[in-house]
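Lecture notes, continued. The same structure-token format from the folding unit now serves as the input rather than the output. Read the line below as a description of shape only.
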């Protein structure tokens, strides 16, 4: 399965949030979208999901434009995690994660063993097994984030789109999440992750897209995108890029008087 943006531009009045952006994510790869605040990352994700209408260009899922899919058809194929979300009403963790199965259930269909298995597997993968009876409003920020990811996985999607999934997670759960994403990719899932964590993107992503003021200013393998001069210009702050102990690229912000 392949989700592709083809020369997509999105405008809000006179403001162009995305400017002629093209890239794709396919089954079996992890693509990270990085860039400063306001660079268009979340708008790109919403456009890929058909939640924002492009001014020009198009988004295609395999051989069909995204607008030609129903919301249920998309939910069966794509799991999504928005950047911000607060529980609208009291739910247990079990109920919250089971919402990820809605596309597989009719309006009055009973929950099946397949639904239960998908929920249990998602809970275990996200390290929240045993939380099923807790109310979501009693969870810490990091626990709630992991429950939300479990809900996205419970839909057993072919593509997974995540907007800042490591927000509120400690370093151990950040690494565990990206390790999980790599395992999912190895099993054939396609993953698009929007992240401010450049070092995690450098270590785990197959390809990166660097956005700046709505434009894709660099795309490709981490070594081709994460260049000190490019990052320093885009983020308006000096950085150094060097190999970490495991060989992955490491981005180090510098003090301005040390550059």
């Amino acid at each position: 399965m392949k989700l592709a943006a083809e020369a997509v531009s999105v405008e809000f009045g006179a403001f162009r949030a995305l400017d002629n952006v093209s890239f794709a994510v396919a089954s079996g790869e992890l693509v990270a979208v990085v860039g400063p605040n306001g660079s268009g990352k979340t708008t790109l994700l919403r456009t890929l999901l058909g939640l924002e209408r492009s001014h020009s260009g198009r988004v295609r899922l395999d051989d069909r434009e995204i607008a030609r899919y129903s919301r249920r058809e998309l939910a069966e194929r794509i799991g999504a995690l928005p950047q911000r979300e607060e529980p609208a009403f009291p739910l247990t963790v079990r109920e919250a994660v089971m919402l990820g199965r809605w596309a597989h259930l009719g309006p009055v269909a009973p929950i099946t063993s397949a639904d239960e298995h998908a929920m249990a597997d998602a809970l275990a993968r996200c390290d929240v097994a045993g939380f099923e009876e807790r109310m979501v409003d009693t969870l810490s920020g990091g626990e709630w984030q992991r429950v939300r990811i479990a809900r996205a996985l419970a839909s057993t999607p072919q593509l997974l789109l995540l907007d800042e999934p490591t927000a509120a997670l400690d370093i151990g759960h950040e690494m565990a999440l990206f390790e999980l994403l790599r395992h999912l990719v190895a099993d054939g899932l396609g993953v698009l992750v929007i992240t401010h964590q450049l070092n995690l993107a450098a270590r785990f992503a197959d390809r990166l897209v660097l956005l700046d003021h709505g434009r894709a200013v660099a795309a490709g393998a981490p070594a081709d995108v994460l260049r000190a001069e490019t990052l320093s210009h885009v983020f308006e702050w000096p950085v150094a890029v060097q190999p970490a102990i495991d060989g992955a690229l490491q981005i180090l912000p510098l003090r301005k008087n040390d550059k």
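Point for the exam: The chain is about 30% helix and 30% strand.
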